[in-house]
């Protein structure tokens, strides 16, 4: 009958514990033994040999790393025997075990990172839960580049909590500094592993942007985060507009539609809450929509055009079309505009026609003309009064 033999690797008996902790504790234990051995050897050499404390330490350390300069050597039997013991036990055995465990730890850490099972010590980061069904790599890459172009977010860490990428993140994502953890947002342990409590922002993507039933999974995640008092950090994607009220009721800060071709909308909703309402409205005709007007522009500044359209209730000027058919956004406010069209954010109900826009600009031209006449008249009166006073 065979006896129970001790396994080659003690960690096989501790499979319920994290491997990294087992390896680190073993390395610490070996260092402790080595430190005790060196302290005893230094003390012994200092006592039995004709050497100072520093010389005893120097000789012990050169013996440990097998350098063997020969400038100091034990002369007593006790010193020589203890040095042999240090060479075989310390240099050959303990150091080899320490180096071996360190290499094993590095390989273990690398494998855990690649498979998304390494727990990072993160804080003030962005957590993204779930991965788009298609084009996830492109979405995350564009999201990262956009968010890091925002002042204050240049170096923000980004963590993806997903069951995708079991073999590791694609190089274009890992090279961009993104990391991932293999898990689900419905798992409290996974939320703890990505340090959701210390995150600056938490984004919950719809599991399937075309399936309304995915809102149920999103709601479950949002509810868990809300119970942890993290609702004000959360931005969620909601497929059905009818479900938006449910997310708002649990304290979610921002709710947007899945618009995967424009991750910039998600970026704006995260860094500038509220702007997603304006951006979403541009994609439908329920309230406002951008409208193009073919109209000649040649004698008004951009500030004049914006003021004219607002004063007459037309809408908000977004851009103009120049003579080369290029759309110019955010032109200088005090320079005269030369172009042949305007893009205006107008009401979807009773959208103004081009004649109303022309009339608004004409009225504003007349207003500017009268204002200049009045201003010149005031200047002339002031000059006349000053001349009279001088005489």
From TrEMBL:
Ranges where the Potassium channel domain occurs: 35-98
- Decide whether keyword Electron transport is in the record: no
**Signal peptide interval:** none
Entry's Pfam families? Ion_trans_2
Please name the Gene3D superfamilies in this protein's record: 1.10.287.70, NAD(P)-binding Rossmann-like Domain
Positions of transmembrane segments = 30-48, 77-103
* One GO BP: monoatomic ion transmembrane transport
Organism domain of life: Bacteria
Q: Which UniProt keywords apply?
A: Ion channel, Ion transport, Membrane, Transmembrane, Transmembrane helix, Transport
Matching SUPFAM superfamilies, A to Z? Answer: NAD(P)-binding Rossmann-fold domains, Voltage-gated potassium channels
- What name is this protein filed under? Potassium channel family protein
Organism whose genome encodes this protein: Marinobacter iranensis
């Amino acid at each position: 009958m065979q006896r129970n033999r001790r396994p080659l690797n003690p960690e096989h008996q501790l499979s319920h514990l994290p491997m990294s902790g087992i390896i680190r504790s073993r390395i610490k234990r070996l260092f402790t033994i080595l430190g005790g051995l060196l302290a005893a050897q230094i003390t012994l050499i200092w006592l039995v040999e004709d050497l100072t404390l520093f010389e005893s330490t120097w000789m012990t350390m050169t013996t440990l790393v097998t350098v063997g300069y020969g400038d100091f050597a034990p002369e007593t039997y006790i010193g020589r025997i203890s040095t042999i013991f240090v060479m075989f036990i310390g240099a050959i055995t303990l150091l080899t075990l320490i180096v071996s465990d360190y290499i094993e730890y590095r390989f273990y850490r690398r494998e855990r990172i690649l498979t998304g099972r390494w727990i990072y010590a993160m804080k003030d980061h962005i957590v993204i839960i779930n991965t788009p069904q298609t084009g996830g790599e492109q979405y995350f890459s564009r999201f990262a580049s956009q968010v890091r172009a925002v002042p204050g977010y240049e170096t923000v860490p980004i963590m993806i909590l997903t069951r995708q990428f079991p073999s590791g993140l694609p190089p274009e994502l890992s090279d961009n500094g993104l990391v991932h953890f293999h898990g689900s947002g419905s798992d409290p342990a996974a939320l703890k592993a990505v340090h959701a409590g210390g995150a600056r922002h938490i984004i919950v993507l719809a599991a399937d942007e075309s399936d309304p039933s995915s809102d149920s999974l999103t709601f479950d995640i949002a509810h868990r985060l809300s119970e942890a008092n993290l609702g004000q950090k959360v931005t969620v994607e909601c497929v059905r507009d009818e479900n938006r009220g449910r997310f708002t009721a649990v304290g979610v800060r921002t709710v947007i539609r899945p618009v995967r071709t424009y991750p910039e909308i998600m970026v704006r909703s995260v860094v500038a809450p509220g702007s997603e309402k304006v951006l979403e409205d541009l994609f439908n005709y329920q309230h406002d929509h951008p409208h193009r007007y073919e109209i000649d522009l040649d004698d008004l500044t951009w500030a004049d055009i914006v003021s004219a359209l607002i004063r007459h209730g037309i809408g908000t000027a977004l851009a103009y079309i120049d003579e080369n058919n290029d759309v110019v956004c955010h032109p200088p406010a005090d320079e005269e505009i030369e172009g042949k069209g305007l893009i205006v954010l107008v009401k979807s109900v009773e959208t103004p026609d081009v004649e109303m826009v022309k009339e608004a600009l004409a009225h504003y031209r007349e207003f500017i003309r009268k204002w200049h006449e009045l201003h010149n008249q005031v200047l002339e009166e002031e000059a006349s009064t000053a001349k009279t006073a001088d005489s």
